[in-house]
Amino acid sequence: MLELERITAGYDRRAPVVRELSLAVADGEAVGLLGPSGCGKSTLARVAALLHRPYAGTVRLAGRPAGGFRFRAPREQRTSVGLVFQQPRLAADPRMTLRQLIAAPAHATGRGEELSARVDELATDVGLTPELLTRHPHQVSDGQLQRACVARALLLRPALLVCDEMTAMLDASTTAALVAVVEEYRAASGAALLAVGHDRVLLRRWCDRVVDFPAVHPKRSETAPTSSPSTSSTTEAKTS
Ligand SMILES: Nc1ncnc2c1ncn2[C@@H]1O[C@H](COP(=O)(O)OP(=O)(O)OP(=O)(O)O)[C@@H](O)[C@H]1O
C-alpha cells in the first residue's frame, strides 16, 4: 500500500532530518514506527501523506508513484491517505463546528450531501454526541477534538491511515476508544496503518510489527543503505 524508497526530506537541503530512509507497509498491514523526539517521524509521516515533498526518493501508494505533493498531489492519491496529527488544535480550523470539521473532506471533494449520513455515523463511532458536534474547537477538550479529527480522517474511506502520535495527548480510556475505532475501520475496510509514536507498548499491541526509526536510517547501517524494516533485526512482532 505504501512504499517509501530512499526518502531524504527535511527543512534544509544541507541538513535533511530524514536521510535515505526506506519503509514499506503492505495492503492491510499495521506498522508502528518508533523513535525519539525530533528524529523525523512526523516529517516522514507527512511525506507518506503527500503533505511534504522530499528532496529525494520515491513514494508509492498502491504501487503508483506519487504524482505530486501538497497542492500538487492528485486528488485520488491524496484522498487515499487519512492523516491524524498529534495535536488536534493545530489540525482544526477554529471557525468550524466539530460537525463541519468532520465533514470538511467531503465538502472539499464535492461530496458533502452524499456523505452527510456518514458524518453522523462516524461521530457516533468516535463517541461524539450531537450536542458536541455543534461546538467549536475552543469549546471542547483535546480528547473530544481528537475524536473529531479521527472521524475526519476516516470520512473518505482511506486505504491507508497515517496516525502521527494520535494518542500522545490523550488519557488511557480515550486512547483505547480511538484505537478501537481505527481497528474497527481497518477490520471492515482492509485499510493499512502507519502508526508513529513513542509508546512501544501501545504500538506493539496495536501493530503487526514495530520498526525503530534509527534502524531504518542508513547512517547507522552503512552496509545496508536501504534496509528493509520487514527484515530488520529491530522489527518486533505484535504482542498478544
Ligand atoms: N517546519 C519546520 N521547519 C524547520 N525545522 C523543522 C520543522 N518541522 C520540524 N523541524 C525539525 O525537524 C526535526 C524533526 O522533526 P519531526 O517533527 O519530524 O520529529 P519527530 O520525530 O516527529 O518529533 P516528536 O516525536 O517530538 O514529534 C526536528 O529537529 C525539528 O525541529
TrEMBL record:
Q: Which InterPro entries match?
A: AAA+_ATPase (IPR003593), ABC_transp_ATP-bind (IPR050319), ABC_transporter-like_ATP-bd (IPR003439), P-loop_NTPase (IPR027417)
Does the keyword field hold Transport? yes
Q: Which organism is it from?
A: Streptomyces sedi
Record-annotated ABC transporter domain positions: 2-240
Q: What is this protein called?
A: ATP-binding cassette domain-containing protein
Membrane-spanning parts: none
Enumerate the residue ranges of region (Disordered). 218-240
Q: Which UniProt keywords apply?
A: ATP-binding, Nucleotide-binding, Transport
What ranges does the record list as Low complexity composition bias?
223-240
> What family, per the record?
Belongs to the ABC transporter superfamily.
Biological processes, Gene Ontology terms: transmembrane transport
A GO MF label: ATP hydrolysis activity
